[in-house]
Amino acid sequence: MEILRSIPEMKAWSRQVRQAGRTLGFVPTMGALHDGHLSLVKRSRADCDRTVVSIFVNPKQFGPGEDLDTYPANWDADRNLLEPLGVDAVFLPTRGDMYPHGFQTTVTVEDLTGHLCGESRPGFFEGVTTVVLKLFLIVQPDTAYFGEKDRQQLQVIRRMVEDLNVNVSVVGLPIVRDADGLAKSSRNQYLNPAQREIALSLSRALEQARQRIEAGETDAARLRREIEEKFALHAETRIDYVSVCNADTFEELDVIQDNVLVALAVFVGKARLIDNCLIERVPCKEPC
Amino acid sequence: MEILRSIPEMKAWSRQVRQAGRTLGFVPTMGALHDGHLSLVKRSRADCDRTVVSIFVNPKQFGPGEDLDTYPANWDADRNLLEPLGVDAVFLPTRGDMYPHGFQTTVTVEDLTGHLCGESRPGFFEGVTTVVLKLFLIVQPDTAYFGEKDRQQLQVIRRMVEDLNVNVSVVGLPIVRDADGLAKSSRNQYLNPAQREIALSLSRALEQARQRIEAGETDAARLRREIEEKFALHAETRIDYVSVCNADTFEELDVIQDNVLVALAVFVGKARLIDNCLIERVPCKEPC
């Protein structure tokens, strides 16, 4: 497994892969890897001749007062997870190389980012799209893999790629959960055992919402209120948003119809957790 | 000379060039070609194995009330200029292909665009950087050529390319002028003979500014005032800006020092004309 620490090294490695006629899969991460990331890596390994994983905690996607300084980092653990999977290269750029003195360019996706995490974290998606475009142009993969836990991020990146004619295929893969339903997240490390128990309220609320919609509920406001009431029971939680929205545009719905996304962002202690469930109009019996 | 009218055609043509191991030079234009454009094409032909010229009047770089609808277009004339120069392909995308329904992504370069044309034409540079990045990612050239008449544009594009790690070398080439000094511009077509005579005031003002600076003038405000007074003599002119600024940052100077850029934007009739002169600290005897 090659460890590439500079942009020129990464570009040269990628050029060699292309010149050898190999396909390249790419999994961009902020480290603190878990089974969600690893599912992306495994899929890339299955799809592509070569796989590169980047680890870069991107300061531009953290707002003032967010957890940039405490975001979990453990390179040795990450390396021990990636190596057995047959990852070919890990790209570990520095902040100074990614954002040198005088850096002043931003990539913005407008409409899709006006809702959900974009509304509650101003500047977050600009940080995401800017760094992801940079990584795409440095790594030059054929395919890049993202998790559906960050479903809004996935769609924003798809939109950017289409709008800017970026030569990368974007693949989204399902949320990976613990056995009890908690969505895998690097930020789960912030939870103590009691908080972790409370955090199960997210996936449970989504599962109940799914059942209510499949049973015929069409009143989005009532559904949001029901979800909010569940969290009101826990003193240690603070709702960031509860959304019942159009799954393509993220616009809040009045009447539930077509494909609906139920999406949550809830603080449990200091951990801001997100989870979501896409519900097709035709009831499907898979769990969220 | 291949005429490529769709994005997939352009991408496929470019892929073939790369796979054949050829270098590709690119001259993005809005058509209405003149000797300034042709100097870029000739340089690309000299530098690169293959040369592609794009012609696309980019609506995103025109503001309300600007001349999008009247911008000169003459494909037959453009073709007759390009063909004898040995251009290999011309890319002629449609507006609908470049900005399909739902398009919502913008590339912004912040600091450099807060001055000169960026200040007087809000949204202009976002339109430029967005379309140029798209064109770069579609055409995938090794080298792209831009004229120094649009010196701010050139530096903004250089900054974008560096910040986003775009794999394109950007080359800027000197302003091409008519024998009497008028900078070549597609918008010169808007001038009647009397206006064309008045338009010479731009290059003359720059030449006088150069002489004053080389003779030791250090007071930027006095120099701006002197230039403004020249245009006050002509009823048919309206100054957009007169700038005596730092040539790297475009910040207005109080005291002239190091490399100074004198830049003008002046309406002559309905034509908004720009011109500029870079003056090195060490006096050089070349004309502007």
TrEMBL record, chains A, B:
Catalytic residues in the record: 37 (proton donor)
GO molecular function: pantoate-beta-alanine ligase activity
Pathway assigned in UniProt: Cofactor biosynthesis; (R)-pantothenate biosynthesis; (R)-pantothenate from (R)-pantoate and beta-alanine: step 1/1
Binding of (R)-pantoate, residues: 61, 153
Keyword Ligase: yes
Leading EC class: ligase
Annotated compartments: Cytoplasm
Catalysed reaction equations from the record: (R)-pantoate + beta-alanine + ATP = (R)-pantothenate + AMP + diphosphate + H(+)
Binding positions (ATP): 30-37, 147-150, 176, 184-187
Pfam families tied to this protein: Pantoate_ligase
EC identifiers of the protein: 6.3.2.1
Binding site for beta-alanine: 61
Primary localisation category: cytoplasm
InterPro entries tied to this protein: Pantoate_ligase, Pantoate_ligase_C, Rossmann-like_a/b/a_fold
Keywords: ATP-binding, Cytoplasm, Ligase, Nucleotide-binding, Pantothenate biosynthesis
Additional note from the record: The reaction proceeds by a bi uni uni bi ping pong mechanism.
Quaternary assembly: Homodimer.
Family designation: Belongs to the pantothenate synthetase family.
Function of the protein: Catalyzes the condensation of pantoate with beta-alanine in an ATP-dependent reaction via a pantoyl-adenylate intermediate.
Protein name as it appears in the record: Pantothenate synthetase
